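Blinded run. Sample ID left blank on purpose so nobody reads anything into the name before looking at the predicted structure. Input follows.
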Amino acid sequence: MIFKRFRIRHGSRHLRARVESCVNTILELDNYLGKGKIRPEIIQQFEKLKNSLQYVSDDSVDEKDIDRIEEATNQLLAEIRMSYGDDFPFSPFDGEKH
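Blinded prediction complete.
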């Protein structure tokens, strides 16, 4: 029983870390590109999400919602890469695609 409970909590923290990664990636990209390059409404939504994460309990995180946030992040990154072409130098980290 203890291990099962730990595994569930560990998984939830992993899901929250995935959301935090998306949020931080977009906000860092906004700083990198300069204010106004990403629509302000999008940045405001990510800032609200970042501020609200501290109030989200581990057991209320749904993986489907996380998948949607990751997909939106990846779409935004793809659109920006298309706009800047192959010379797009921003990389939030070295590793796999977000």
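Unblinding after everyone has recorded impressions. The chain has one domain: 2-83.
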